[in-house]
Amino acid sequence: MRVDSKIIVKKETQDENLYQSLAERSKHEEFLRKAVDLLVERVVFGRSTRSSKVVEWAAPDEIKKAIDLKPRLGPASHDELLAFMANVARYSVNTGHPYFVNQLFSSVDPYGLVGQWLTDALNPSVYTFEVAPVFTLMEEEVLREMRKIVGWPEGEGDGIFCPGGSIANGYAISCARHHFYPEVKYKGVHAVPKLVLFTSELAHYSTKKMAAFMGIGSDNCVNIKTDDVGKMNIVDLEMKIKIAIDNKCTPFMVTATSGTTVFGAFDPLVAISDLCKKYNLWLHVDAAWGGGALMSKKHRHLLNGIELADSVTWNPHKLLAAPQQCSTFLTRHKKVLSEGHSSNAKYLFQKDKFYDTSYDTGDKHIQCGRRADVLKFWFMWKAKGTEGFEKHVDKLFDNAKYFLDHIKQREGFQLVIAEPQCTNIMFWYIPKCLRGCENDADYYERLHKVAPKIKERMIKEGSMMVTYQPQGDLVNFFRIVFQNSALDHKDMVYFANEFERLGSDMIV
Predict the structure, then answer these.
(1) 127 class by beta-carbon count within 10 Å (0-12 exposed, 13-18 middle, 19+ buried)
(2) Full-model pTM
């Protein structure tokens, strides 16, 4: 009994110490090394090969059985924790897989990953120089260089890293409103007229959502018609600006898009800027997706006129393949972020510190605690150089063109847009059962069912992951998105072959 008692006491003592938030070599080194080894071998390398699955499909109930998802009263052992890691990875979508082309992000960049690991190991919160000396300086340098690339002289202006492009578009609305009506900061929405903003009918939903969130109202976010390739219609924009004025509303901004989510369309920024100047409106450009093309001399023409914008959203985690999340809001106006959002909390942003408090940049954010999202992007930029990013972007566009040209020559593929602008390629796959049936009354109803069925097959087999959607009057079509520069022309042929294999014998 005495021996058993000692064992129990020893176990209880060990368990009691597990709650302490400090890495100790004697307790944690072996576990940490095994955990890192598991990540490197099984996740980074083991899941990035073309022969691995993009996803190991399991229904919700199966995942609940495979992984104990409920928190426990007591601690788990290190071996159990490693098993949890392995199963979490096993049943998660392998977004680093070459054939994950489902969203406007993909791949796991090795330098970005190391930068993200370093970020998590340092665990900073970027609001003052005092607690984040390197990162406050790093942010300003990276954001200034991004503003230079946009085309603002000497990179003048301001900018922030923020949690996603949706929030960045919200910052644009906030800054535009404060620019014209600074009293709104203190007196609220009742102190300003009925404001109206405009954006493309194909723009990201975040602009309308943020208009609602900020008290402007989603009905006062007016959708502008687009042409047959998805670009904003300038005639419709001016007409709706005039209608808003005639209805005693106050237009104050236009959100243009450089790289729409589905069509990858680039709005005509110069013409939109001319209208914004004519009617005294703030021009914001949502370049969350297409902004990466600015790094390429060959493709930056897609964003001609972006230097005329008052503000820009640009997400390096999209076209430039930085790890999630890495989003920026850039503006040519130096003070609007700080004047519009600062609260000067004295417990954090004291003005009598022993150093230059202009480096305490956190008060211009609506957040307080904030990750150092800059580090992974900065580390990638150091590793690749601007030249490396340019080669990356050029290869994406080259792959997209090759895939486009390839499926043009193959039976069963029908393009939504014959000459897409970005690396989004949209198409219908027509199974054999529908070929020659284009004039049948139920043709489009049947075609609408094809993409979901092919998607189910590819997911359950894990062979690739490609998204689909309807758009307006268009029935479900596939949208393959090229963002991973590790792909080559052979992979483009693989995708086409796989659609044919999965869908050729389909009956709808």
Answers:
(1) buried
(2) 0.93
